[in-house]
Every structure is written in C-alpha cells, then in structure tokens.
Amino acid sequence: MKKVILMMAFAIGMTGAYAQKTVKVEKTGNDTEETTDSGETETMPLPDKEDARRSPSTGDLFDGLTRPVAFDRMVPPYALEVTFNKTVHLIFPAAIKYVDLGSADILAGKADGSENVLRVKAALRDFSRETNLAVITDDGSYYTFNVKYADEPTKLNIEMKDFIHDGEAVNRPNNSQEIYLTELGSESPLLVRLIMKSVYDNNKRLVKHIGCKRFGIQYILKGIYTHNGLLYFHTELKNASNVPFSVDFVTFKVVDKKVAKRTAIQEQVIVPLRAFNYVTAVDGKSKERTVFTLPKFTLPDDKQLVVEMNEQNGGRHQRFILTNAELIRARVINELKVK
To answer: How far does the signal peptide extend, from start to end residue (predicted)?
Structure first.
C-alpha cells in the first residue's frame, strides 16, 4: 500500500513539473509589469529610458506633449560632395559671418584674402557617415548643406546666387531668411540691403552744398537718410581728369571744430556697417556712386564729422565736413519706395 501511495505522489509531482505555466501580465501606472503565476506576483522593471535613447532613434522619442515640425517650416539643404584630394569652393553673394560643421570629418574655412568664398574638403578618406554644413552671410541669408564623401565630386566650384539677382520676382528661395545680426541692431540685413539699393537706384541729390573738388576730382555728398536707428550716406566720386583714380580707403571720423595749440587731437572713427557698390577705382572722365550704412549718431556743438577719401599711391585726397545741422535733417527712409 505504501508503494502505491509513493508511486501516485511521484506521478503527481512529475505532472506538475512538466505542466504548461499560465502567466498573466498586467501594466501598472509606475512603468512596471506585474507577472502573475498561480497566485504569486513578481515585478519586472521596463527597459531604462537611457538605454532607449542610446539605441538608434526613429525620431519619435520625446518627453511630454510635443508638436512635430511641419515640412513647410524646414529649410531644405543643398547636396554637397567632398573628397580628400580636391577642394570644393562655395562662392556666396555676401561676406561670410558664421560657419558650422556637423562633424570632424570635414574641414572648412574662408579663402585667404576673400570674405565670401568658403573652401571645403574631407578630413578623412572615405568617411561613411553623412554630415552637414551651415553658413550665415552678413546679408542675413542662411545656407545649409548635407555633405557626403565622393571619390570624384561632380561640382568643385559652386556659386550661391542671391535671390535679388536670380530673376525670380515672386518665388524667394529658402536662403532668404531674415536673420538678424548684432551689428545692425533690430534691423534686418535684407532690408538694409534693399534700402541701400533703393537709394542708389533713385539717385536723388538732396544735399547740394557739401563736397570737395581738387585736382580734377570731385567728391560730394548727395543725401543723408535714416531708418530704424541707422544712417545712410549717398556719395558720388567724379573724375574729370584723364588719369584714373584708385581709392585707398574712406574714413568717417568725429573731430573737434577748433583745436588749441599744444592740445592733443581727439578723433572718433565711425566704421561703416555696410556699403553698396563700394568704389575702388574711377576711370578718367567717369563717375561712381556709393551708399554707406552707419550707426546712428549725433554731434555736439564743438564737434564735426570729417569724411576723407585717400588715393592709393597718389596725393589727390578728398575731404568734406558735416555738422550736426546736416545730420538732423536726414530724410526719413519711409518716404522711399522700397520693393
């Protein structure tokens, strides 16, 4: 009898050991899973969020309520190929103010002696991962590129045209973003350029008594304009001689009207922020015009503004003087038609 009981107990034990286990999984509110088996409960933690972040992302892992960025808000990047043995040059319509590289796989820098040419090449041979490049110019334009390696890039010299000269009057490209720069304050670089272009195209002479004429060279001030904390000086250089005039530099400086003997001369140089059609040379029997953008300033009664233009390798220097009376009569730019 004892043998029968032992055999039955052994059979029941083996049956329970090989029986299929029924598991009930419930998800609780504290990001844990409760597994229930035959009345017993054990708690298993979910995978850590840090582990999920380290895994390849699909772009959907965000904490909290998040609104996706629509495609009409995206600035589409240009495609750019670089290589190790050749240099790619990007020519921009304005001076480069900012460059950012997505990784150390590429090298970029402004060309020597140039402000608007960027040279790009690969730092490593056959880098596999795609990277990016971003550029901001001083006219407020933003350019972005997706960069990948190629043994033989199809485009080595690329010109990034400005939308003003593209010929398209309706469709503006994606690089015409209104990016504000510190030096221009609250004024958009794009609007500054449009104002200078409008002043240049209108070519009105509002000021008729300020200028200088020496050695067959005439340098005059045609107008002063103001808008949103900036001053615009419209100047003209006329060469009545047969010898070309090469411009060395143009300076704007505030000086004392009267300087006593044995007194140090105090000068404050005002550096122009922008220049439209900056003149570097004027041929004989011709004339050229330039529009300068300067920060807003006024002059005390004992100060005056001196504008000087020096000739390179010559002595036909030009110079005219402004007082505060001329500055405060600057024409408000809202009266101009800016398209």
So the answer is: 1-19
